[in-house]
Specification:
single chain, 163 residues, mainly beta, Jelly Rolls, four-stranded antiparallel beta sheet, lipoprotein
């Protein structure tokens, strides 16, 4: 009886954890000393087709050591034939009370941050996505050298939800 219950439990977990919209989802760790301002996290992506539209996300794992309410990122997409698109993006990372946003029950929060919507990869070949932080403290000219609290940076491509 117990053996069957355990089997059913794992079967249910496997169905619940399936993510049929995911096309690409990779995380890369940053230095334990903090995410250095010159450190670029790169992802090589070969999209499955050139017709389907996809939604793109930057994923981020952070701990309570992250002390900012927002996050500025520079995200660059390099196309197979050399074209480059570079965006400076701002994301809210905490609510007005200072409580960190994101999913997770421990001190590690996972944030799924919108990058681009309805993107069609119309060039065949490998794309490169580069992510770099661009944080600055209020009143200071120079950027934050080592951004504490960020543990992993990820990139995700998914099929849009059917409406």
């Amino acid at each position: 009886m117990l053996r069957n219950s355990v089997f059913v439990f794992f079967l249910i977990i496997s169905f619940v954890s399936c993510d049929s919209n995911r096309v690409f989802d990779v995380y890369k760790p940053v230095s334990a000393n903090g995410w250095h301002k010159d450190s670029i996290v790169s992802f090589k992506v070969s999209p499955p087709d050139s017709i389907q539209a996809y939604n793109l996300f930057v994923n981020l794992r952070n701990t309570n050591a992250y002390k900012f309410n927002n996050l500025f990122l520079i995200v660059e997409m390099v196309f197979p034939h050399g074209k480059t698109i570079k965006d400076t993006l701002e994301y809210r990372m905490a609510d007005p009370s200072g409580k960190l946003l994101g999913e997770g029950y421990t001190d590690v929060k996972e944030n799924k941050l919108w990058y681009k919507e309805q993107v069609v990869f119309n060039e065949a070949g490998e794309y490169t996505v580069n992510v770099q932080h661009a944080m600055r403290e209020n009143g200071k000219v120079n950027g934050v050298i080592n951004l504490d609290g960020v543990t992993d940076v990820g990139f995700r491509i998914e099929k849009p939800l059917n409406k």
